[in-house]
Specification:
about 25% helix; about 160 residues; 7 strands; Glutaredoxin; alpha/beta; about 20% strand; two-stranded antiparallel ribbon
Amino acid sequence: MPSIGDQAPDFETVDESGEKFKLSDYRGQKIVLYFYPKDETPGCTAEACSIRDSYTIFQDSDIPIFGVSGGDAKSHIKFKEKYNLPFPLLMDENLEIAELYGAKSRLSILGLGVKRITYLIDEEGKIEAIFGGSEGIEKVKSSQHAEQITSYWGLKL
């Protein structure tokens, strides 16, 4: 698991619509990279909707947000459409990205293969803060997660 101050591990994948994504393409911007266990579960829905409801604050601050989970494209599309999520959901069906970020769970047999962990990445591509996991500054509060992130970066809700 990367630690605060480490370079965020680079990776390439696609989002739910098949658009290519490469983390290093976002150097020069702050980024929110959040891992969540499964589409449409109560905690994951609360977390995604918390971020959705504050999305304009992130947009106005030029901070892109990316959700990462092990679901397939069909599951991500359904989740995104049902809850009107305005940010991309990145594909990690083999949990390789989750493993790279210390977010792979031992519960993968049950279909919940990803831990709830959020990385705040700075403009240089370094991990500035972590919510959740053993390295986190505090636990992810699903329904208040946007507030945790905006508070850390001093953004007004």
